[in-house]
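Researcher: We're teaching a course module on how sequence relates to structure. For the next exercise, students receive a sequence and then see the predicted structure as tokens, so they can try to spot secondary structure elements on their own. Here is the exercise chain.
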Amino acid sequence: MSFFDFNNAAEQSSFDLIPKGTLVKVCMTIKPGGYDDPSQGWTGGFATRNANTGSVYLNCEFVVLEGEYARRKMWSLIGLHSPKGPEWTNMGRTFIKAILNSARGIHPGDNSPAAQNARRIASFADLEAIEFLGKVDWEKDQNGEDRSVIRSAITPEHKDYAALMRGAMPLATPAAPNTTLTPAGQSSAPNRPSWAQ
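Model: And here is the predicted structure for the students to work with:
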């Protein structure tokens, strides 16, 4: 068999987008960008800095762990700094807090010492391979095509949290007003704001 005979090659896979609003258990990994700022505690090369805008972020991959969409991947940025102001930083911090609440089973209203400790990390390395319940959203890619992303984490007060974290099938929720935690209380806009580019 010649490498150049492609008659017996597998057919190309085609994936439809994961429906918007679907709740999925994911494992998050960070693509290291090599940017450190020890004054912020950002070490280990996890952060990425956009040389054109000066924005700093975590470049994250989310892999669905189980169910109908198992092994599907999505990519999103978690904002750490923008020269245009604190909004992107605040959105990123809110998202990371929700990820920790989801992964560690902490109710957002729990301010006990144990809960507060569970919301602390030593470095971005503590977020590597963290598993949590995420909500699928859509945004436009650089070519104007829709793509699935994770921009919010589902925390223990959600009615389906316990079942899905135990391994039940992911749920597609109808398009309705967002009642889960979103970064800095922002609406789920399909396009990344200009200051987050």
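Model: If you want an answer key for the exercise: The radius of gyration is 18 Å. Residues 23-188 form one domain.
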